[in-house]
Structure formats: C-alpha cells, structure tokens
Amino acid sequence: xxxxxxxxxxxxxxxxxxxxxxxxxxxxxxxxxxxxxxxxxxxxxxxxxxxxxxxxxxxxxxxxxxxxxxxxxxxxxxxxxxxxxxxxxxxxxxxxxxxxxxxxxxxxxxxxxxxxxxxxxxxxxxxxxxxxxxxxxxxxxxxxxxxxxxxxxxxxxxxxxxxxxxxxxxxxxxxxxxxxxxxxxxxxxxxxxxxxxxxxxxxxxxxxxxxxxxxxxxxxxxxxxxxxxxxxxxxxxxxxxxxxxxxxxxxxxxxxxxxxxxxxxxxxxxxxxxxxxxxxxxxxxxxxxxxxxxxxxxxxxxxxxxxxxxxxxxxxxxxxxxx
Length: 323
Description:
about 325 residues, alpha/beta, D-Maltodextrin-Binding Protein, domain 2, 2 domains, six-stranded mixed beta sheet, 12 helices
C-alpha cells in the first residue's frame, strides 16, 4: 500500500477527541477464538459534509437498524473534523465510521481498520471536486449552460472530471472558500490542480476557511468568496435558495475522486465486522434505508469496497505534503 504519514496537527486534534468523544468508549464485551472483541455497545462516527445540526437524529434510522440487526446498542456521534473521526477509531472511541476517501485510507493504514463498503451516488462510485464562482465572466470561456436548474460552463455540465481546468489559473488573486486539509474535494484535489496549473496556493489566493461543503457554496453565493471548492454538486444540498443554481456557476471539475464509505474497527471480531457490513448492505437495499442514507450523505446505495482504489487519494495528499 502507498505510505502515508500523519497529517500535521493530528496530535493537537487527538487531545480534543477526549472531549468530542468523551463517554463513547464501548462497554467491554466477549472476545472469541478468532481474535477481536464483541463489545456490548458500538459507536458510529459521522463526518458532516454539510451543516451538522441534527445529523445524529437524521442518522437514527441507521443506528436503530444496526442495533436491531446486531443485537448490540449502536450510538451515533458527529465529529467536527475529518481527522478526529479517524483518531476516534484509532483510540477505540468509535468502531464504525462513515468517512471520506482519504480518511478511509488513513483508518486502514494507521489503525488497521477494515474498509468494508463504498458509496454509490446515482450509480457512480467516483466524483469530481468542483470549482464554483459568482463571476462567470471571469472564468467561463463559453456561455453557461443550464442543467437541472443549475449553470455550468467550460464543459463542466458533462458532470465528470476533469473539465475546465484550463481556466483555473485565473483564480490567482481571488478570495477562495476552502475546506480543511483533510477534505479530498474541498481541499486536496482542487489545491493540487491549482498548483499543477502554476498557482501558488499559499501566496496567490486568499483562502476563506469553511468547515463544510454547503458553507463553501454559500460563501460564493453570499459574495464572501469569488471562487469556492466543494464536491460535485454541493449546490443540491442547499435548501430554500431558489436562485442559487443561477448565481453560483460551476466552471471546472478536477480528476475523479473515489467515493466515501464505511470502515469498521480491526479490533472487532471478523464475524462482527461481517455482520455490520451485511446489516448496512441490507439496510441500503430497503426504501427506509435508501431514504436515510440519502438524508445523511446523499447516498443512493452501498457496495462492497475496493480498498486499493483509495491509493490515488493518498498519493494526492502526499503530493501536497499532507501525507
């Protein structure tokens, strides 16, 4: 597997975890001859891709289904940071994680977690990061076209990356809404694309820090940033803003990124790991499950994971000095 070192700042983040996940360590349970444990309680770590208010409640059908299927109480906890969820799994404070692609890789490489499932969205197992702007005249080489009420230019309406990357060097000098370094779509892939286009992302852009994808979209819509990064198409997760798709124009897409997915702790028995995997797969095949997964992460299905597909994200992080 591709080597990756801990992202700078994880030590500080780890100290915060004691607070964020306080009381989340599972009650001790029985082990078995095959190794690993079967705790009396399990914690599901959720990483918000949008406003996290109410995320645990939204995920309640998932935790309720797991509790019933496993015969073990499963509780959901929201991490405020991508890396915090990884560290929670490493510290035994969470045993199941719905994680972005880089964090899936890290949980496996750093802490021996098993990457068991990856998500599908409308049949796709990859997605691009998108560059958005409220100033299409500056970034669009053609007239924006409308698809499903939203505007695209430079071929980004193809909805598959890469597209429009010849225009991204114009971002130099702009205010840009950027997620934290652990975000593949909100940081790693677009920052790497800018650097490959010759933009000094430390000196040539004014980074406007945001914590979630919907916040990045709204920063562009509200004029706090001229350009923003997010996953494709984060404009869909913004409610009650009728003109958002017209005012925020997608002008470029990065290379494709492997979808997020589910990791389970390697400290659990192999049998329990498989039970969790099967329970989530079964849940995603029901109407209730599809509705719950759509509400939490815009997921339309879960599928068995291909852990090797995550190496590309680790290489991108390494190229930025994050690995």
